[in-house]
Write a structure and sequence with these properties.
The chain is an alpha/beta fold. The chain folds into two domains: 88 residues, Rossmann fold (3-Layer(aba) Sandwich), CATH 3.40.50; 135 residues, Rossmann fold, CATH 3.40.50. Strands 1-11-8-7-5-6 form a six-stranded parallel sheet. The longest helix is centred in the first third of the chain and has 21 residues. It is globular. The structure holds NADP nicotinamide-adenine-dinucleotide phosphate (NAP). NADP nicotinamide-adenine-dinucleotide phosphate binds next to helix 10.
């Protein structure tokens, strides 16, 4: 078994971005600028936004966070989006999801200028992705595709099973893996909560991508010998032996599945770091589009 090491590959990507940003600064070109809107106090969202800010800073990308209170009205949020849409100094921005319940994620996403939609969630960008046109790919699937590419994983003609059909992970992942590209050209099966015989289907996968949001959902009996396994899930579980009191696990039972897989992503140190790398790559792309 070999690790698909998100830590190593994301560090490599960040070094490449850092060098490009440094060259911009040397040539008196403004560095890329990413803004993030965070509404409310959700601890996971706060952690994600703080991590995005830190990662931007580490490569020289300017980052600005707009932290709005939990009771922000739709009108107030739309004003911030409108402001960022019009701000020439901001190349791309994200609205951290999920929004508090009184706000509608889908409606809000549609109001982002697609040229600044570095999360790749706007319907226009999703449409371009489906058609194989140049666009911002959603960060998690983008990061996974980069990981497969940089490990030179041969996906053409392979049987790929994606578990989960969310708009941000499972569905775009299934589209990217079936596109005529490298990586890609796989024969894809997309599974969800209504799929019958999911264990048998998963066990036929040459490439298994788990994004169900259930801790240790994928057990060793669901994995073919030699399969490539990508674990998107992130779950905090209590662990008294850790200083923090918790540890992170994925949708895949790593200990057992790693005995059968040829390649596997760890949690942490796998897809999560690649997601950040995907967002940074999209932000750099947004800046270059304006140059
Ligand atoms: P989500 O929106 O909750 O979607 C989960 C998907 O899994 C749904 O399509 C659901 O089917 C399916 N599902 C749920 N239970 C199932 C079951 N028993 N059998 C088969 N399918 C089942 O989750 P998500 O946003 O895609 O996230 C998935 C996981 O990845 C979460 O743990 C999340 O925290 C993590 N995540 C990690 C990153 C990262 O950077 N590493 C990024 C995003 C998400 P239905 O559609 O039928 O309900």
């Amino acid at each position: 078994m070999k690790l698909l090491d998100g830590k190593e590959i994301s560090a490599q990507i960040k070094e490449e971005i850092k060098a490009e940003v440094a060259a911009m600064i040397d040539n008196d070109i403004r560095p890329p600028h990413l803004a993030a809107i965070l509404v409310g106090e959700d601890p996971a969202s706060q952690t994600y936004v703080a991590s995005k800010e830190k990662n931007c800073q580490s490569v020289g990308i300017i980052s600005t966070a707009y932290r709005l209170p939990e009771n922000t009205t739709e009108e107030e949020l739309l004003k911030t989006i409108d402001f960022l849409n019009k701000d020439d100094e901001v190349d791309g921005f994200i609205v951290q999801l999920p929004l508090p319940k009184h706000l509608n994620d889908d409606k809000v996403i549609k109001l982002i200028d697609p040229t600044k939609d570095v999360d790749g969630f706007h319907p226009e960008n999703i449409g371009k992705m489906v058609l194989g046109e140049d666009t911002y790919l959603p960060a998690t699937p983008y990061g996974i595709m980069e990981l497969l590419k940089r490990y030179d994983i041969d996906t053409a003609g392979k049987n790929c099973v994606v578990l989960g059909r969310s708009h941000i992970v499972g569905t775009p992942m299934s589209i990217l893996m079936s596109r005529n590209s490298k990586p890609g050209n796989a024969t894809v099966t997309l599974c969800h909560s209504r799929t019958e015989n999911i264990k048998e289907i998963a066990a036929q996968a040459d490439i298994l991508i788990a994004a169900v949001g259930k801790p240790h959902f994928v057990t060793a009996d669901m994995v073919k010998d030699g399969a490539i396994v990508v674990d998107v899930g992130i779950h905090r579980i209590e662990d008294a032996s850790k200083k923090s009191g918790f540890r992170l696990i994925g949708d895949v039972d790593f200990e057992e599945v790693s005995k059968k897989a040829s390649y596997i992503t760890p949690v942490p140190g796998g897809v999560g770091l690649m997601t950040i790398a995907g967002l940074l790559l999209n932000t750099l792309k947004a800046r270059k589009a304006k140059m």
